[in-house]
Design goal:
With 190 residues, the chain is an alpha/beta fold. It has one domain: Rossmann fold (3-Layer(aba) Sandwich), CATH 3.40.50. It is 29% helix and 28% strand. The chain is built from six helices and eight strands, in the order αββααβαβββαββα. It has a six-stranded mixed sheet, sandwiched between helices. A two-stranded antiparallel sheet has the order 1-2. Helix 3 packs across helix 4. The protein is globular and about 50 Å long.
Length: 190
């Protein structure tokens, strides 16, 4: 899938939002990519998921795992495209864990899928869960890569779109200095 098509889908579904946002990382930004907007449309979600899954066609994968909340729907759609078992992790008492009877087995080869990659914190939390189960991270996939610095998961890492969205330390945030109201759209502390 070409970048132009990804951008067309994102524009059609209202993924890119403008304003003053507090990101899950604690950083502030004047733009927010709300991928849930595209994931509410199954046809677009599956089109993107199939294109993302295609990037991993030559990698042996047993299980697709997505961190709640952003990775749940996308992981399911990628798992469907790959015809693989799909589960999600979620936070319990602030710590990422497997619940609901989900299990990973020692040696399972895992593709971790999330909606947006910014700091890598959610994905690294999932990797901690994988390490505890003896399963193996073999690849990482996201809809959007908005990293401002290199994050190396030491496995193939693919995204449908790389964007350069500015993120600011709250002490240096120009929107804060202007007194603009802030919105926290992420799900890290739900």
């Amino acid at each position: 899938m070409k970048n132009e098509r990804v951008i067309e889908i994102f524009k059609t579904t209202g993924v890119l939002q403008e304003g003053h946002f507090k990101l899950s990382s604690g950083l502030h930004s004047n733009q927010y990519l709300q991928c849930a907007q595209v994931l509410q449309y199954p046809v677009y979600a599956q089109e993107l998921a199939e294109a993302l899954a295609e990037k991993f066609k030559d990698i042996e994968i047993d299980v697709v795992v997505g961190p709640a909340m952003g990775g749940v729907t996308l992981a399911y759609a990628v798992g469907l495209a790959l015809e693989k078992k799909t589960i999600f992790t979620e936070r319990e008492d602030g710590k990422m864990t497997l619940r609901r009877g989900f299990r990973l087995n020692k040696g399972d080869k895992v593709l971790v899928v999330d909606d947006v990659l910014t700091t890598g914190k959610s994905i690294n939390e999932v990797v901690e869960v994988l390490n505890q189960t003896g399963s193996e991270l073999v690849a990482v996939g996201t809809l959007v890569d908005r990293r401002s610095k290199e994050i190396n998961f030491e496995v193939p890492t693919e995204s449908m779109l790389k964007v350069d969205v500015k993120a600011y330390d709250p002490k240096e945030c120009p929107m804060c200095q202007e007194g603009l109201e802030i919105t926290k759209p992420g799900s890290r502390y739900l």
